[in-house]
Amino acid sequence: MTDRPRVVLGVGGGIAAYKACELLRLFTESGHRVKVVPTAAALEFVGAPTWAALSGQPVATEVWDGVHAVPHVRIGQEADLVVVAPATADLLARAAHGLADDLLTNTLLTARCPVVFAPAMHTEMWEHPATRENVATLRRRGAVVVEPAVGRLTGADTGKGRLPDPAGIFALSRRVLARGVAGTAPDLAGRHVLVTSGGTREPLDPVRYLGNRSSGRQGHALAATAAARGAEVTLIAAGVEVPDPAGVTVRRVGTAAELRAAVLEAAPAADAVVMAAAVADFRPAHYATGKIKKRDGVEPDPIPLVRNPDILAEISARRARPGQVVVGFAAETDDVLANGRAKLARKGCDLLVVNEVGAEKVFGSDHNEAVVLGADGSRTPVPHGPKEDLADVVWDLVRDRLADARG
């Protein structure tokens, strides 16, 4: 790979083509050298001068443009990453069937680097059996096909099929590029994983709640990294402060009880469950229907607490499917490893990510360091670094245990 990674940005002919301009900007401003290859239909939405000006390179759609340089072969051969956004239903079908009727489909056939498709289309098109089969074919061949987002579509329609946020596609694409694995299916392809993220909030009254400092960054990094490695990801988010990662199904909850219900509902479909959310151990015994008032000269009444359900111990003891891997997190302030080992034994999970936390540590930061303890006695230190790096270590360990379970 060169010092400036070479990215091909393929653009399909959909209304979401305008969003690819932002994706192109993110790539170029972060030092990537980008060649834009739009389809002829894409140029009906955004013209070639725009792509050329933003990328600093000439734009072509046909194999006959600049034929002396053999672009239909060279562009794909020289790329470090190909990202197609938006990938329309038609473009997914042509790619799955190996058609080569324009420069972009020729590029896809000659690329020997990782390929990411970010679909965008109406819900009916995405859910059609033909599209689902084409997506399955591309994933089986090693491409990362991002799940589309849910939201407003063309016209008045709303549903699944919206192009994910360009920043999310960019983040996922950078993780794919960093791993640099091409020619085989991503190592979590065909796996369904469940991740919890953020911190639960237990209401005291209509204004206040009992919560914690978790921002959701580590849980979201786990979800984003799993998606980049080809997994189908369900993310249950509680009180998060960060944008949804691209390509994952998100369910929002508030309290520990809501989180438990969502986890128990989603766990039967998951090969692995990663409980990264900071779940409140206690909740107020009584909810005040009106705001608790401050009264001059009178001390407030004590607020009695009751225990919340232990979700990690529950799903560890009652595996929803054979071979399911369960990962917990332990945020400790003292005797970190000793408390972590005790918690691992008590909870019954397969892996426990243990880290030291505090007001200025981990919470709200983009970096983390931890030790991953295994029920088999293993101990995997993860040095201080981006939370995505810790996420990759966790998924490496999960992948190996899933492979062992499969035999």
Task: Describe the protein.
The protein is of the alpha/beta class and about 400 residues long. It folds into 2 domains: about 5-180, Flavin prenyltransferase-like (Rossmann fold); about 190-405, CoaB-like (Rossmann fold, 3-Layer(aba) Sandwich), CATH 3.40.50. The chain contains 13 helices and 19 strands. The chain has helices spanning about 20-30, 50-55, 70-80, 90-95, 105-110, 125, 130-140, 165-180, 215-230, 255-265, 310-315, 335-345, 385-405; strands at about 5-10, 35-40, 80-85, 115-120, 145, 150, 160, 190-200, 200-205, 210, 230-240, 250-255, 270-275, 280-285, 305, 325-330, 350-355, 365-375, 380-385. Strands 12-11-8-13-16-17-18-19 form an 8-stranded mixed β-sheet, with helices on both faces. Helix 1 (about 20-30) runs parallel beside helix 2, helix 1 packs across helix 8 (about 165-180) and helix 8 (about 165-180) packs across helix 9 (about 215-230). It is globular. It starts with 5 loop residues before the first strand and ends with a helix. The model has no long low-confidence stretch (mean pLDDT about 90).
Topology of this structure?
Blueprint: E1 6-11, H1 20-29, E2 33-38, H2 48-55, H3 71-78, E3 81-87, H4 89-96, H5 103-110, E4 115-119, H6 123-127, H7 129-140, E5 144-145, E6 149-152, E7 158-162, H8 166-179, E8 192-198, E9 202-203, E10 209-210, H9 217-228, E11 232-238, E12 249-253, H10 256-266, E13 272-275, E14 282-284, E15 305-307, H11 311-317, E16 325-332, H12 336-347, E17 351-356, E18 367-374, E19 379-386, H13 387-406
Parallel strand pairs: 1-2, 1-3, 3-4, 4-5, 8-11, 8-13, 11-12, 13-16, 16-17
Antiparallel strand pairs: 6-7, 9-10, 14-15, 17-18, 18-19
